[in-house]
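Action item from last meeting closed. Structure (216 res):
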């Protein structure tokens, strides 16, 4: 099986490049493709978009149609991995399935939504956070409720970044993105993919295992 995994930013790619082979083993192939933001689902599925901007949801109708047309006889699956942010999960998933349903030839597809943000998957493995950042603040980490809507990246920043989320935010979004990529790489190297308290990570892992034919 080949897994094509679409993510909304570089931090997601850095994490999944490390974590996916830990889950599916070496009998399968995979490619993680990073976009430059999540964007929004077009109101008109056939509306033109600027593909060069590489915004995930804006391009998703075109991408899924392309996979469906080109992968008809190829054992493969598309994973769309993105953050929920402040959206309603049920409504958002329905919007994603509407895109898939609009494809004449549907590619095998799974939608995996990190709740609230990708950092929830790191906070689901506090020992990994502590291994990567030994001086992380225990009080902040232990107060976190898995997959809660609480400002997840800010919570992680408050635990591990000097000055917390306030100091990091003051440097601007480019600095925030760069720091998130560092967290993704450092923490993922220590994560135990079989033991994570984030329900949305567990869902992602289970879907990978099912398609890889691996017994959990």
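Sequence:
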């Amino acid at each position: 099986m080949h897994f094509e995994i679409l993510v909304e930013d570089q931090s997601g790619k850095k994490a999944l490049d490390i974590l996916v082979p830990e889950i599916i083993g070496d009998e399968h192939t995979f490619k993680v493709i990073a976009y430059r933001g999540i964007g929004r689902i077009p109101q008109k599925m056939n509306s033109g978009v600027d593909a060069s901007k590489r915004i995930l949801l804006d391009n998703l109708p075109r991408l899924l149609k392309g996979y469906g047309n080109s992968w008809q006889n190829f054992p493969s699956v598309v994973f769309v991995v993105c953050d929920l942010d402040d959206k309603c999960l049920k409504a958002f998933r329905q919007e994603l399935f509407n895109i898939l349903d609009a494809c004449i030839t549907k590619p095998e597809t799974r939608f995996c939504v990190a709740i609230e943000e990708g950092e929830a998957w790191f906070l689901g493995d506090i020992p990994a956070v502590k291994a990567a950042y030994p001086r992380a603040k225990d009080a902040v980490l232990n107060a976190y409720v898995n997959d809660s809507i609480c400002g997840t990246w800010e919570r992680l920043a408050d635990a591990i970044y000097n000055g917390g989320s306030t100091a990091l935010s003051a440097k601007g979004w480019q600095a925030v993105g760069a720091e998130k990529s560092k967290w993704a790489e450092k923490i993922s190297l220590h994560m135990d993919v079989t033991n994570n308290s984030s329900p949305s990570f567990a869902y992602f892992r289970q879907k990978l295992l099912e398609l890889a034919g691996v017994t959990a």
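Note appended to the action item: The beta strands are 2-7, 29-34, 76-83, 109-114.
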